[in-house]
Amino acid sequence: MDLPPGFRADGEYAGKVYKLRKSLYGLKQSPRAWFSRFSDVVLSMGFVRCHSDHTCFIRRRSDGRCIMLLVYVDDIIITGDDASGIAQAKLHLQKSFDVKDLGPLRYFLGIEVARSRCGISLSQRKYVLDLLQDSGMLGCRPASTPMDPNLKLSVESGELLPDPSVYQRLVGRLIYLTNTRPDLTFAVSVISQFMHAPRLAYMDAVYHILRYLESCPGLGLFYASGNQSGLSCFTDAEYAGCKIDRRSTSGFCTFYGNHLISWKSKKQAVVSRFSVEAKY
Predict the structure, then answer these.
(1) If you ran DSSP here, which 8-state letter would residue 161 be given?
(2) Same domain assignment for residues 211 and 163
(3) Are residues 42 and 107 in the same domain?
(4) I need a surface site. Which of 135, 165, 219, 236 has the fewest CB within 10 A?
């Protein structure tokens, strides 16, 4: 490991370099090696890997209490109704890794968590304001809807953008914003279909979404306190809405009690011959 340019070492350290015995950052296999090591430690604590998400680990007790552990690189969330088990899990992790307990969850990967007696609120307000600031849309004229309902984009809607990376970067950040903004799901799914060759009309649709975010940067999800019961799902589809390939778009949202837990808007894989088939 060479010294940085411009740094001069005098005395016994002149002309010398550091030799690393082990390197982690910058290696292609480092994420796999780190997660393998972390998984071994967590599984030895009695946790079971979730089948739908391999970064989520669950441990259940005989009395019904459970602990859930979610990891993203080196950021970890531990939650559940087993307070003593959570404390033991933290102590076990401290023996194997150099960890720091940040207390109750308030901010995680751009998602803000606010608690009250009424429940828990999830939002990405700071993420939205940073997005508007970086795109130069902070303080712009707000819009009342994420997308014009009469807008129909095609492969020839305007000229090609000279620098497609700007469009791709904005759409990528909007996709992450849909984690707490179900109202943006359909609009973002439409503009994300033109990442390979964006045009001026597509960029106008992105700016329309940013103008909508200017009007409501703090919207998010709210989960009320108290017991919830009952699983319900609502789904719908529009028929042949895409002018390019005549495919339909499906959408659904799932509620556990009054809490929204999953949602999606996606173009169907095949062309439906009539509206009943698209909805089915």
Answers:
(1) P
(2) yes
(3) yes
(4) 165
Q: How many angstroms separate the CA atoms of 69 and 92, rounded?
A: 13
Tell me how far apart the alpha carbons of residues 67 and 57 are, in angstroms, rounded to a whole number: 8
What is the domain range of residue 236? 227-279
**Residue 19: pLDDT band with limits 50, 70, 90:** confident
Nearest CA-CA partner of 239 in 270, 266, 272, 269: 272
Residue 116: Cβ within 10 Å count: 9
CA nearest to 93, candidates 113, 111, 76, 72: 76
Q: Would 251 be classed as within a structural domain?
A: yes
Q: What letter does residue 67 receive in the DSSP assignment?
A: E
Are 212 and 235 contained in the same domain? no
Q: What is the pLDDT of residues 133-192, one digit of tens each?
A: 999 999 899 999 999 888 887 777 778 888 889 999 999 999 999 999 999 999 999 888
